[in-house]
């Protein structure tokens, strides 16, 4: 089990951010690069240590493999390091747990899930309607969650500025 100190976690996150973002990018451009980094670089293995998201973020950044909790954790630390507010979301029901984030880049809260899956879904700044459509398509309560305490997303599709 890999143990991350805050110093090691932040150093690794900042190293990744310096390789995928620039100071001239908007916050939405940086968030999109974080999404692409996680989606493209983390191999889906179906396993992770779900006892501590910070340790899993560090392990995920170092080993580049895991499951939805790994993608969730890596994205969460990278988004936090660029100053983005996030909310943790977990599936209700279904055959297995699923984790993702809601994020606010200044235009309202959207779903953010870089997890690779068998049936492709663009989980960058997805609306409630988009996750509902995906859930109806693939079943298994994929994006079913207790909406208590979570804001509704804007109806309009997110645009990167």
Per-chain topology:
Blueprint: H1 6-20, H2 27-41, E1 43-44, H3 53-63, E2 65-66, H4 68-81, E3 85-90, E4 99-104, E5 109-112, H5 128-138
Parallel strand pairs: 1-2
Antiparallel strand pairs: 3-4, 4-5
Helix pairs in contact: 1-3, 1-4, 2-4, 3-4
Characterize the quaternary organization of these chains: single chain
Characterize the overall form: globular
* Lateral strand order in the biggest sheet: 3-4-5
Helix content: 40-55%
| Integer-rounded radius of gyration | 15 Å
Share in β-strands = 5-15%
Distance between the termini: 40 Å
Number of strands: 5
* Mean pLDDT over the residues: 96
The unreliable regions are none
- Give the SSE order as H and E letters: HHEHEHEEEH
Largest sheet at a glance?
A: 3 strands, antiparallel
Counted by DSSP, the helix tally is 5
Please state the structural category. alpha+beta
Structural write-up:
- This protein is an alpha+beta fold and 161 residues long.
- Helices cover 41% and strands 12% of the residues.
- The termini are far apart.
- 37% of the residues are buried.
């Amino acid at each position: 089990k890999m143990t991350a100190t805050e110093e090691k976690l932040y150093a690794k996150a900042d190293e990744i951010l310096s390789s995928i973002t620039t100071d001239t990018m908007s916050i939405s451009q940086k968030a999109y690069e974080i999404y692409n980094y996680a989606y493209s670089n983390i191999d889906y293995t179906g396993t992770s240590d779900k006892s501590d998201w910070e340790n899993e973020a560090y392990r995920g950044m170092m080993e580049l493999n895991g499951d939805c909790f790994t993608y969730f954790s890596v994205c969460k630390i990278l988004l936090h390091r660029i100053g983005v507010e996030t909310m943790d979301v977990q599936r209700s029901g279904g055959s297995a747990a699923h984790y993702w984030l809601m994020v606010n880049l200044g235009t309202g809260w959207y779903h953010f899930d870089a997890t690779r899956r068998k049936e492709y879904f663009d989980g960058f700044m997805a609306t409630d309607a988009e996750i509902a459509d995906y859930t109806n398509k693939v079943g298994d309560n994929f994006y079913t969650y207790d909406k208590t305490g979570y804001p509704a997303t804007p109806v309009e599709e997110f645009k990167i500025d």
